Amino acid sequence: MEKLAELILIPSPAMGHVAQMLELAKLLIYRNNQLSITVLIMKLPDYIDAVSGPFVDSVAASSTSNRLRFFQLPSPDPTPEWSSKTRGHFVYRLVQSQKSHIRELLTSQRPGNNKLSGFVVDMLCTPLMDVADEFGIPSYVFFTSPAAFLGLMLHFQFLEDERHQNVSDFKNSNSTTLLSFPSYAYSVPPSVLPMVLVDRDTWLGRFLDFARGYRKAKGIIINTLAELEIHALDAYNNNNNISRSEQDLLPPIYPIGPILNQSKSRSESEEEEITNWLDEQPPHSVVLICFGSQGSVPVDQVNEIAVTLEKCGCQFLWSLRRPPQSNNAQFPGEYTSYSEILPEGFLDRTEKKGKVVGWVPQLKVLSHEAIGGFMSHCGWNSILESIWCGVPIATWPLHSEQQVNAFQLVKEVGIAVEITLDYCERNKDQPMVTAEAIEKGIRELMEANSTVRDKAMEMKEKSQASVMQGGSSYLSLGKLIDEILKNTAL
Question: Which Pfam families does the record associate with it (predicted)?
Answer without folding.
Answer: UDPGT
